[in-house]
Every structure is written in structure tokens, then in C-alpha cells.
Specification:
The complex is a heterodimer of chains A (204) and B (116). Chain A has 204 residues and is mainly beta. Chain A contains 1 helix and 12 strands, in the order H-E-E-E-E-E-E-E-E-E-E-E-E. Chain A starts with a helix and ends with a strand. About 6% of the residues of chain A have low confidence. Classes of the chains: A mainly beta (204), B alpha+beta (116).
Amino acid sequence: MTRYLCAFLIIFFSAPVFARPVSYPGGWTFITENDDDENSALMHYTITTRTAVGYRTAYDRDSGELFNGIQMNNLIKRWNNPGSQANIYVESALGMAERPEAFVGLKTDWENRRVMIQYDNKMTTSPNPDKREFIQSAGAGVAPHLARSGEIQTWLMFHVLHQPEDTKNWQAVPMLRVYKNVLLFEGGYNLTTKTPVANAIIRF
Amino acid sequence: MKKIALIIALMTMSPVTVYAAQENTAVAMSAEKMTDNVVHVGINGMVCDFCAQSLKKVFLKEEAVSTVDISLEDKMITLGVKKGQTIDDATIKKLVLHAGYDVSTIHHMNETQTKK
């Protein structure tokens, strides 16, 4: 039992998410993303409908370095339609690992209650050439059932990651997303690297 | 052994269910007493419960609002307005926009219309 609990905690707190980098003004959001590359945690506060600022900490599994810094998420454009929503966000962060590090990325999504598609990218730069990277991902999901507000909603997702500099530059990740009220959990398995992925969001 | 487990489970869950039902009824009754008017607000962009919870939190901070009910199927929130208080269309639109969504329709209904 203790082994399973430890394994769960390692996966949960050691393993990328998903949309909604900006909440409602005055709202706090905690996000953790865990995969074979990185374990990260972000706590952000939404200042305006378009801007959230937060503190990010991330452990790089390859280098063993811990990044700590400030992250800013900006909603660039949102389309609110009767049965769907689409968003374009820019995420950026600046902080320190062993040397200064920064990243900027684009997040886009479209969803209705049944289907979801996403495209994200992220470019990291640092004086350390090993830490410079570009990664992009595309994903699609379907909801097998439509839950009412307050009920558990599930999504079956499939993500494809592309990292040009990596030896395994194309990776496939099927995922199961579950959420209820202000809690979201996403678990999956990277078929290329054969490692688990676990993400979670809590909104306050 | 299975029978004993089943009896224990039923005994444990029954009071919880009864209590929950009583609590829901009490909440509904108190909301009914507190509410004079009801406003149905159609929302564009409300596609998930995360969106809905944001709207709920924003509206519950408003002094005049006592309850917020959400229908993801109808893309609509229903506001219970406290007795003797009102909430105008401009305020509703501002709050929905503030939460990051758009208003499609607003229908105000008073107590008489609601009972019909």
C-alpha cells in the first residue's frame, strides 16, 4: 500500500497541461505538470480577464536543475460562441536554474462540449546551450458523455509532441482527463518514452 | 459475510442520503424565501464546468445575488435575486464580461412569473 501511495505521489508531484492559463479576476490557480522531462508546479493569480501572474518551480530530470521564476500568462484573443470557445494565449517566464533561464510559448485551443483541439509550443533559452529547446504539441479530445455542472466530466485525449532536437523527436501520448467543479486531473502514458504523465489543476 | 457488509453499507449510507436530501430541501426552501426575482442569462463560451464555476464565483460576490444555478446544456445561468434588490442588465453584462464570457440573452422574471 505504501509503495502504491509513494508511486502515486511521485507521479503526481514529479510529472503538461492543458488550457485555461488565465482564470477569472481574483482567482487563484494551482497547476502541476509531470512527465519524463520535467516536474513543475505553478501557482498563479489572475489580475484581469486577460492577465495572470504566478510563481513557477520546475525540476529538470535530465540536468537535475531546479528552476524558480515568475510566469506571466496573457489571453491574446478569445472567441465566445453559443456552443464553443476558442482561445489564444501567450505564456512567458523568467527565472533562475543554475543559470538564468526564460521561455515563451503560444497556447491555442478550441472546444465545444463534445470535441476539443489544442496546439501549444514553447521555446526555452538560457546561456547554457543544453537548456535551449523548442517543443510543440498538438492534441485532440472527445467527451464520451456530457456531464451537468457539478458532475464528473471525462475526456479521452491524444497528444503528439514534437521536439526537433531530441532523439525521440515525435512522441505520442494518450490521456484521460477527468474534472469536477474546480478540480481537474489528467493522466496518460507516453507511448514513445514509455513513461507516465500526470497533470492536475485546482482553482480557488 | 457479504450480507453483513451489505447491511452495514446500507445502514451507513441511508442516514447520509436522508440528511443530504433534507439539507438540499432546506437550502432550496431558504433560497426560495430569500429570492424575489429570477434572472435567466444566456452565456456564450460556457462550454465546461471550469467556465461555469468562474461565473458562479463572480456572481456570488454580487450583493443582490443569492443563488446561481448553472445549465451547461442550455448554456445558461439562473440568478436568484434577494428580496427587495435588483440587478440590471448593464451589471450582468459587465460581470459576465469580467469573468471572460459574453451574454447572449437576459430574461428577468418576477416571483409571479416564476410560479407560472
